[in-house]
Amino acid sequence: LPSFTGEIRCEAPNNKLDKFTGTLTLRGEKYALDNEKMLLRGCTIRNTEWCFGLVIYAGPDTKLMQNSGKTTFKRTSIDRLMNVLVLVIFAFLALMCLILAIGNGIWEHDKGYYFQVYLPWAEGVNSASYSGFLMFWSYVIILNTVVPISLYVSVEIIRLGNSFYIDWDRKMYYPLNDTPAQARTTTLNEELGQIKYIFSDKTGTLTQNIMCFNKCSINGKSYGDVYDMSGQRIEVNENTEKVDFSYNPLADPKFAFYDHSLVEAVKLNDVPTHRFFRLLSLCHTVMPEEKKEGNLVYQAQSPDEGALVTAARNFGFVFRARTPETITVVEMGETKIYKLLTILDFNNVRKRMSVIVRSPEGDLTLYCKGADTILYELLHPSCNFLKGETTEHLNEFAGEGLRTLVVAYKSLEEDYFQDWIRRHHEASTALEGREEKLSELYEEIEKDLMLLGATAIEDKLQDGVPQTIETLAKANIKIWVLTGDKQETAMNIGYSCNLLNDDMEDVFIIEGSTSDDVLNELRNARKKMKPDSFLDSDEVNIQFEKSSKNEIIIPDEQANGVYGLVITGHSLAYALEGNLELELVRTACMCKVVICCRVTPLQKAQVVELVKKYKKAVTLAIGDGANDVSMIKTAHIGVGISGQEGMQAVLSSDFSFAQFRYLQRLLLVHGRWSYIRMCKFLKYFFYKNFAFTLVHFWYGFFSGFSAQTVYDEWFITLYNLVYTSLPVLGMSLFDQDVDDRWSMLFPQLYVPGQQNLYFNKVVFIKCMLQGIYSSLILFFIPYGAMYNTMRSDGKAIADYQSFALMAQTCLLIVVSVQIGLDTSYWTVVNQFFIWGSLSVYFAITFTMYSDGMYLIFTASFPFIGTARNTLSQPNVWLAIFLSITLCVLPVVGFRFLKAQLKPTPSDKVLLKIKEAKKWPPPPSPKRRLRRTSTRRSGYAFSHQHGFGALIMSGRNMRPKSPFATTGTFSPNSDKYKHKGL
Amino acid sequence: MKNKTSFLPREGEAQPSRCPDNSAFKQQRLPAWKPQLTIASVLSSFFLTGAFCLAVGVCLVVSANSVREIQVDYSDKCSDCSKLRENSSNWNKECHCSVNFTLKEDILGDVFMYYGLQNFYQNHRRYVISRSDAQLLGRNVNIQRSYCTPFSTYRNGTPMAPCGAIANSMFNDTIDLFYSRNSSVVQVPLLKTGNSWWTDKNVKFRNPESYNLSSAFAGTARPPYWQKPAYLLDEEDERNNGYVNDDFIIWMRVSAFATFRNLYRRLRRVRHFAEGLPAGNYTFRISYNFPVTRFKGRKHVILSTVVWSGGSNPFLGIAYLVSGTAATLTGFVITGIHLKLRKKKTYFQKQ
After folding, report:
1. ipTM, 2 decimals?
2. What CATH number corresponds to the domain at position A565?
């Protein structure tokens, strides 16, 4: 190998998964390289011990990474709003400074000029206007506390704390693979409380990607349901007794089946049952692998097939080995070698596959399995009665969201077959029209089939997926499923996890293959959902005309019912093009559920981008595989399901956990709390800084606009850092308006977050007004109380230091009471922080104003004695009390009256919870999902083109004989007799 | 394009589980008190606050009304002197004026005499910082480095003691009170010490150490507007001289507002004045040294008694009465709204 020298010329790295061109020049010869010869990153090679390969693209150049889109720095909407608000605050600051500067100019002109006898102007100042100009900058320094610099730090701390809660949550820990939830990004928490659109992958996210042989119908009899003694159907749970397969040493121990009657039928040598399982063990393209005797592993192209073959294996029809010409099956302990004559492979048009085998006895049989709709056309008329019964069963299976296949067989005449196989050989070697000729031949032989029954495979959903989806839907979150699977599979899952149901008015299917078709289909859908939306008077249309195309934000439109939309990747490609984009967004967003099937990773990202662009909504993408990376990166929040498949999704995600069902806890509990906490924090933070700073502004009017501060400079330094930081941090780390059970039980509580109701520009203005009001109280009450009065011992009280101390004490108590009012969940920590901050304030104040401090640091602590002399006065405390009352009581009254007179929907829910709390405990959310069974095809088969040809060619068959010795077993042997009965 | 690899649990026995701790803190289940705005708590807070405010308001108004106060604006009454003082070259000319007033009733109890200044911006930032606390502690410091400029040193380098704009602008009128009793005029005995905070007098202000005060101030000069150096502020009382002079200390405690009053003297309750100030005719004899007309300032002299809540300022009492009334009224409004809403609710429930 080291002597290998060759040259590869290939195209530049790109994101086309299905195309590759290149040439390999080796020893002067040129070999063409195409997609068939490529292995994409993330692929697993099966049934291959070793191979030589050459890395063509690596790292970011791989097709997969090219598809994953670029990583963008994610910010939350609150971040963006905060940036705007900080600019607004800067403007406000400039305005205040300007007013004060002009005031200073006027004052210096009118009064300061004459006051120069006692206070000459500073050096270099020779006119009032210049003094005003200087004062502008002085006030910028003094009032800059209105710009919340520590806000950003605090916000990050809060987010970090709330991220830790996600990491620590035991209810999001998955014990089976020891995976706790993980917040990989610590800056997006509050956005979790505002999600409006969820984009979900299907495989591995909604489903476990485990197929389970769940039910079957054999010869008109349905197996798989469990009944109790009285004949009532009972729900399968962990306690239900599993069928004992111990009689079969080759059985797969992981396989679980609950209906004992099927085993009995097998043991009783029921002919159709045996034939049914024989078919399942013969008609497939599964590769067996038996590295150790008895330890069979099946390599199936599609998990469906694997499930069917495994079922047959457990029931005593063990598919043991295959060669290009033979299939070895251990039938009820008896090894039989069937001659495999041909495989009539699966494809999307045929929707069926067949094998023709010759049994050891010499019988020629065609076994066929496929979609019911297709297979029913090919049945022999004698099966009509059975067909009716099977159809009933199929409906039942499909109603439960199972993936069904119909199986049938046909005995062949030797002569006819020889003739057919000859023609088949001719056709398969034909140079022209090979495909058509072959399919004609297939059609010819696959007819007059005898119906055997039907299989039902459960595409195992992850635990709690339907309940989660129901809860999220109640929280007004729209769920879009973006999957690479086929339409049938996707819709099937849609039904089984309750995304789609029969209560829906309609499920639109967009599968047009031209731009116009897609447009028409979308328009028709919209016409049905909201006929008014085509009128010129429709407000959205009016808005379209007004605004230019690039900055349209489509408002939410209400459809006249509940609708679903299914769109295929092909149509999506058209719909994502220029002028159809808007149409797609308008139509799709009116539907409750949107399923996009057969989409590429890039399209997933494009869909997310589309919604982000036209909707003012927060999006979340959840997925587990490498193909979800692009959408995870694009969405506002990406969630990775960890554990099942690789780490790419998790590595590019913002949050990760092991089960889809944890999403509801992440959003409804953690997200909601984070959002509420963040909003409360911001409201309070802006309030406290406004109340703090604006007092300086008012004082400016009374101190000759001289940039004199109201408070002691130490207080200014410590206010944000020590006195008020911990209580608000405590609130924003611990606050809960209702606990987690209630927020899961009333998903409606999530809606205010989506509508961004708790913190927006209006709320900010309100905070500002409240801050201005408080600052007025905080200045004028101490001013009025001190003006021209004296202490109770006759000494003067209105000195600057006493006033400063009084104003700052008022302020600190007022903001502490305000945080107490905002805190709705007083834990020990909150108590400690709030009372602690107040005590620390008094402790620090008395310390700083003490004799010792003054004598050591004379210049730094000139307020000596102020605390002792001032805080001993009754009228000082009366003024403080009055300020608190006037600042806080109106807020109490306003909040109470607002909740009484104009209750928001969430107020009503909170009221309901309050009522309900009187009767503990809250009812545990136990709902049974209602299934309706209307006729629809439950057919689903997840693979595309079979690899029958590969098997027949025998190219990748290792010449390895199956283990010759097998433990013989028989269900009728004495050992097992008593168990079977 | 998707190839699944089966998940192999890599968890060994030795590896500790990654399961988060089940602590109340980590699971956000800390026990907590959950206060809520209920009608009971809201109404009780409004009514209780209202009642409290009304009660306090009444007390404050009553006690403020019981304060006797006499305020005399002498900036116009001594117009001759004020004109004289407008010209700074007359700084060393003495100027006296008298202001008469009559007390119809006795003023009983402690009586305090204040001087009040109006439009004097003691709270101007540059004024407030224009002092050297270290110097006032008697330390030998380089006042050039303090904020005293331009009142720190004379041109010849002699430092001012005390330095700074505050000290320089010290109020230096002297006011004496005379009582006309049966055609004989008696000077009302007034105390000039014990008017400042204990901490100021004993901690914040100290004279420089030396064998006597004048030598302690050697090498320094009086501020330009002063008529005499600091060590001559009170020649009679050693403990009221220099930096620890009460008038000086009080002046150095700058006011928060441009209109303010400072305690000047207290009535010494001896002889005729043991009960307070008896009714009769009084005269303030003022030595007018402090010019205010340039910046439209005004000067007052005030005699006042005090109560537990301070002086005669009615603001706090009225504010309490208004707030109490408002809180009570709001309480009634809330009750009304609540009852109306509840009626409506039961009405709907009946339907």
Report:
1. 0.93
2. 3.40.50.1000
